[in-house]
Amino acid sequence: MIARFKDLCMDAADAHRLGGFWAGILDGELVDTGDGDTRIDPRAAASNAESIWVNTVPEPRTGKTRVHLDLRLAEPEPAALLAAGARLVREPDAEISWWVLADPEGNQFCAFPPRVGARPGVFELVVDSADPAAQAAWWARVVGGRAETAAEGTTSLAGAAGFPWDHWVFDPVPERKRVKNRVHWDVELNGAEVTPLIAAGATLLREPTPATSWWVLADPEGNEFCAFPARPTP
Description:
By secondary structure, this protein is an alpha+beta fold. It has a single domain (8-180), classed as 2,3-Dihydroxybiphenyl 1,2-Dioxygenase, domain 1. It contains four helices and 16 strands. The strands form two sheets. The chain has an eight-stranded mixed β-sheet, with helices on one face. It has an eight-stranded mixed β-sheet with strand order 6-7-8-5-9-12-11-10, covered by helices on one side. Strand 2 and strand 3 form a beta hairpin. The longest helix has 12 residues, at 132-143. The radius of gyration is 17 Å and the shape is globular. It starts with a strand and ends in a 6-residue tail after the last strand. InterPro entries: Glyas_Bleomycin-R_OHBP_Dase, Glyoxalase_6.
């Protein structure tokens, strides 16, 4: 194991508007970080890894991001999400039992009906993949856990260090990645250097700068993620 899951990030044209939407539907506190960005801290979170950072970026959204969240609803219908500003993309039908929605900046996410014993909110992180099994196996080497492949080709990573939700799913899709993801995750390294991640197959996209303490990398299918050095032990 090289690192642990740290948190999730979203690119935004308007970090306060997008952060306000997600804070509202996740029953979270919207935190103004003072630099134009925001953070959502869900009130019922079990760990800081459930926080979502919303970062202002200059480039507009183009194409479909390959990373999205699945939410468990508190009510049988997503009326509250639509009232908060979500847009309906697809209703349940003979093929799917969930709603596909988009947030105010067009990022798609899925909303599932309530389930007995399941708390409302985020329960899955889903990553579109050309080779789900290989992707899950690679990330298992990075953050631990085990890859479990279902009959339909979807592969889940179970037991990843620091991962806060029920499922981390790598879903088969026919298309390759073409644009930068608007949603990505961060990891915290076990040490101070990124060398083990690069040796494992990550691609270095950007070194730390005077204003940033983290590396920007990409996994074997080009999904961007940030790696932070290990926090000093008290």
